[in-house]
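thought: user wants a sequence for this fold. calling inverse folding tool.
action: design(structure=
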């Protein structure tokens, strides 16, 4: 298996260079294209708030300011792409309707790359992160310091739909890894599952994975992160939002704990 197109949404802010660098790091082992997609605030989302007289002086000034900010952001995002010497790259600046354009680009990409801030609900790309993971159900890499392709990868496994989807979609990453560790915490899950099934699935596809069954009960997230750290994993593969998003938002959940952690990088799928 392989990946052919890695997408990085860009805001025109300081985090763009790190996101592009992570996308290039992910793309290089596969010879994949990197698509830097500038995702500005959509003027169409603001206009309904201006009322029928939006062409008045104050409203027109506000509209022009938004356009100027978008142009400046595009220049910065383009500079972030130009700063990398990777040969297979493409810069795309989205126009109104921005969210429809972002969805269309993501559907033709194998992985969408973000840095930590959008994943934690911070900055102009926070909504884009939610859209990619929960609405478009695209595989997402949350890139953090120490990201490495070809090192150790941990796979969080509970037998559920989201974890299964993430475990399958991460196959190209696992095939490049020098070490793969499956982490299962059956005592911390309400779901009954056989942890050895995923190991057999990977073995049939040429990936020799270790299996570590964690004895912990209660919240699985701290145990998973501790085990991933002990395994030396640079990336943790996990399902995202296994419960309804409103429930996860109110009560936290494993996904929120993983997103708020510092390490490792995350490969997520809903």
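)
observation: tool returned 270 residues.
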């Amino acid at each position: 298996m392989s990946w052919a197109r890695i997408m990085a949404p860009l805001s025109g802010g300081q985090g763009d260079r790190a996101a592009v660098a992570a996308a290039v790091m992910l793309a290089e082992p596969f010879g994949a294209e990197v698509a830097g997609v500038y995702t500005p605030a959509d003027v169409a989302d603001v206009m309904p708030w201006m009322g029928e007289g939006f062409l008045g002086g104050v409203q027109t000034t506000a509209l022009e300011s938004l356009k100027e900010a978008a142009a400046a952001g595009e220049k910065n995002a383009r500079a972030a792409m130009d700063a990398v010497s990777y040969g297979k790259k493409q810069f795309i600046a989205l126009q109104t309707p921005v969210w429809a354009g972002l969805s269309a680009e993501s559907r033709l990409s194998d992985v969408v790359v973000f840095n930590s801030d959008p994943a934690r609900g911070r900055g102009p790309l926070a909504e884009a992160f939610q859209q990619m993971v929960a609405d478009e159900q695209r595989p997402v890499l949350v890139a953090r310091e120490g990201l490495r392709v070809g090192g150790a990868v941990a796979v969080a496994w509970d037998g559920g739909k989201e974890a299964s989807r993430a475990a399958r979609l991460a196959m190209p990453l696992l095939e490049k890894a020098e070490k793969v560790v499956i982490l299962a915490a059956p005592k911390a899950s309400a779901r009954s599952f056989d942890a050895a099934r995923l190991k057999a699935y990977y073995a049939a596809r040429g990936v020799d994975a270790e299996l570590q069954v964690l004895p912990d009960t209660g919240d699985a997230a701290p145990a998973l992160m501790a085990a991933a750290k002990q395994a030396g994993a640079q990336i943790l593969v996990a399902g995202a939002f296994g419960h309804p998003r409103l429930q996860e938002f109110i009560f936290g959940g494993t996904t929120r704990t993983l997103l708020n952690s510092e390490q490792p990088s995350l490969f997520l799928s809903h």
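thought: summarizing for user.
answer: Here is the designed sequence. The chain has twelve helices and ten strands.
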